[in-house]
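Lab notebook: predicted structure, single chain.

Context: the supervisor wants predicted structures on file for every construct in the current expression panel, including those that have not yet been purified. This is the next one on the list. No modifications to the sequence; it matches the entry in the shared construct table.
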Amino acid sequence: MPESHLTVAGLSESQLLARIFPRLNNGPAEGAALLLGPGDDAAIVAAPDGRTLISIDTQVVDQDFRLLWRNGYRTTGFDVGWKAAAQNLSDINAMGARSTSMVVSLTLPPDTPVSWVEDFADGLSHAIRDLGAAGCSVAGGDLGRGRELAVTVAILGTLDGREPVLRSGARPGHTVALAGTAGLAAAGLALLESEVGVELLTPELRTIMDRQCRPLPPLAAGPAALAAGASSMLDISDGLVRDGGRLAAASGVVLDLDPAALKQLTEPLAAAADAVGGDPMDWVLGGGEDHGLLATFPADVQLPRGFAAIGSVEAPAATEGTGVKIAGRPADTVGWDHFAD
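Prediction complete. Output recorded below exactly as produced.
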């Protein structure tokens, strides 16, 4: 059988793993916590400061991504591997910490091409390296057979002896700031779901589309925010308003966003809006999966590099609850919900 036609049904588990392991970045790395990697029944990972952060995310075909999009783009294994790494690395980043290791579970239909699985491993490995998480290693995982393609990644991290930045520390008078982007991934999703063929996309539109397939979380920003004295922080995975509302609820405050700052965030989305007829402000407020960081800082703190002020923290009025406002008016954008959408 030609190599290009080989599926996972044609290999044993050990043969498939033998193709995956060499593609993972598990060589010596500065600050690496992996003491024993793939090959035994369990990995051994160091806990550098005696505590371990842990998070987990799952991607399921036709729920979190499509293998073939309406615009004709075919999702590659590299895309899914990159995104699986990026969204998990971002969760650790949002605590002000750095990632140390991850384990990966793949559920594969029998007709999955072996080349797709190899590309997945390449995407996972490249994201770890290219996004700046060189101290993180793939410690192991699991392969299984199933009807639907699904990817689950559990990730570990360390605070290096410092205290985490939680969602619950925002106080009235603090500055609301954003690191990374908001709306680009949502604009990319709109392009993927549009009738504008992928072959017709300009380089600018293709870059926007790629931000949905391969997000770029600002991994240097989390530890920088912690060092600067951030009072609260979270990863924006489900939209600026929805996730901002979670931070506001945890802190018992209101986040009042600046319309001028929001308008600036819409500017890189103009070309996508022209192409598919979308509303850039809806993408900025409700679009998820950019995996930027929303944080608050005391007013006397200089914002660390990579953060831009987008609003302020206020106490809720006696007759109102916590939430997100824009220039004093409630923001009603819904954002992404995994069960409702």
